[in-house]
Amino acid sequence: MTLQLYGVVRAGHPRAPRTVCWEDLAMVVGDAPAQPDPATHLAVVSALVEGGPVLPVRFGTVAEDEDAVRAEVLAPSADAYRADLDRLDGLAEVHVCLRFTEPGSAWRAARSDVLLSEVAERARDSVCLPAGESADERWAFLVGLGDLLVVRDAVAGLGDGGVQAEWVGPLPAYSFLDRRTCSRWSW
Fold it and tell me: Which terminus of the chain is more solvent-facing, meaning fewer CB atoms within 10 Å of its CB: N or C?
């Protein structure tokens, strides 16, 4: 039976609906759908975040069966997975999107530093993301789970003075995983 792969968690993760375990690691899996849905994939991995760290697997990744998950995915990278799960324990990624109504890039850069200072103070790490269509600036912040409501409220208070602000989270730490060492199985 072909399995859809969602993410690596610690065995016994309280929010994982179905897992394949190998030692202290588990892969969250589901039956592979005929038409994979990226929104469903994101919903599954995002729901896991508050129950413990999750290393999301690239959308659409499948394995032949449970034995393949153990032998080809979990076992070969177990040490790296454990290190990343330890590093991300208690943390989640949050995206902050800013849309400026005033022109001028110098003004925007100075303004975004001031606007995002409260969020940045609570973050363990941050990275600028490509802006895209829905925002002039997008940032990913790695924040403690206990700070999520504070960050949400800080972003909600940014909607004045020529800027619209939105946040998306909590998310798995997509932006804070080392993509240079990934395999075909992972992010």
Answer: N
Residue 11: other Cβ atoms inside 10 A: 14
Per-residue tokens: 75: 């076992």
Q: Of 178, 182, 162, 173, which is closest to residue 45 (Cα–Cα)? A: 173
**Who contacts 136 (Cβ-Cβ below 8 Å, separation ≥6)?**
98, 99, 100, 108
pLDDT for the residue numbered 97: 86
Torsion of the alpha carbons at 170, 21, 41 and 34, rounded to the nearest 10: -170
Beta partners for residue 137, in sequence order: 98
Q: Check pLDDT > 70 for residue 182.
A: no
pLDDT in tens, 111-156: 677 778 888 899 999 998 887 776 678 889 999 999 999 999 888 8
pTM above 0.70, yes or no: yes
